[in-house]
Specification:
Helix content: over 70%
Radius of gyration: 20 Å
Number of helices: 12
Order of helices and strands: HHHHHHHHHHHH
Number of strands: 0
Strand content: under 5%
Distance between the termini: 57 Å
Shape: globular
Length: about 260
């Protein structure tokens, strides 16, 4: 098996660094660091599509991968961008960072934005491996990987739609969504986000270094469970919804969808 071309990795790293520096400059002027999340989601997608366009692997494999990662990036990036534009103030976690660090915040954000670029570069590596697949096409892995990716994308989209619909109803202010997928998981959107990253090691079967791609869902789980996802979301929910959310925690699975438990 031939090793993938490393030149495109250096090109992508340089472009991502420049984009992140521009994003950091924008946040210095706007005092809104939430743009870092937009850069990450669009950065992963754009970098992945660049790798796939430059690759010489089977065209159908590259096309399916491009469709999955492209739709994922466009949907998530647009969702985050609309949220950033709609909020009058900086998102809570970034505002807390700004308050805690004071005058040092811009230096901190410089490394933070560059760190988002590094993460975008890392999460685009599955596309780099798949783009260099030596062939022949492995049909079962294409079908299975594509099916997992489509299910994950549709599930995450539906979870976000259900939550948005619930929040738009004024009667639900201060209450916890328990409708649809949210009846079975406190974070179904995160669950399907995690599931999405299983599609790429499946699609990459037969490529050089394909086994390393199983680290992608592992990394995503660690970020969602311990860093940027569940911990912050749950703290904010407890602040805003109190006992209603505590009851939700007692009765509903934190991550993997499962039937609700009876309350105590």
């Amino acid at each position: 098996m031939e090793s993938p071309d490393t030149f495109v990795l250096w090109v992508a790293a340089l472009v991502l660094a420049l984009v992140c520096l521009l994003g950091w400059w924008v946040q210095c002027r706007t005092r809104n660091a939430a743009h870092a999340d937009v850069i990450w989601s669009f950065g992963v997608g754009a970098t992945s599509l660049f790798y796939l366009a430059m690759g010489e692997g089977p065209w159908l494999l590259r096309l399916v991968t491009a469709a999955l990662i492209g739709f994922w990036s466009l949907r998530l990036g647009s969702h985050i961008w609309r949220r950033v534009r709609a909020e009058e103030h900086e998102e809570g976690r970034y505002a807390a960072m700004r308050e805690a660090l004071g005058e040092r915040i811009n230096l901190f954000h410089l490394f933070f934005f560059l760190g988002q670029g590094v993460l975008a570069w890392l999460f685009a590596l599955p596309a780099w491996v798949i783009a260099a697949h030596p062939g022949p096409l492995v049909i079962w892995s294409l079908v299975l990987g594509g099916a997992v990716g489509v299910i994950a994308l549709l599930g995450e989209r539906e979870a976000d739609r259900q939550l948005d619909r619930f929040r738009r109803n004024p009667a639900h202010r201060g209450k916890t969504c328990r409708e649809g997928l949210w009846r079975y998981s406190r974070h179904p959107n995160y669950f399907f986000e995690w599931l999405h990253w299983f599609s790429y090691p499946l699609l990459a079967v037969g490529a050089a270094w394909a086994g390393w791609l199983w680290l992608a869902p592992v990394m995503m789980f660690l970020f969602l469970w311990f860093v940027t996802g569940i911990p912050y979301t749950e703290r904010q929910a407890l602040k805003s919804r109190g006992e209603d959310y505590r009851e939700y925690q007692r009765t509903t699975s934190a991550f993997i969808p499962w039937r609700p438990r009876h309350g105590h």
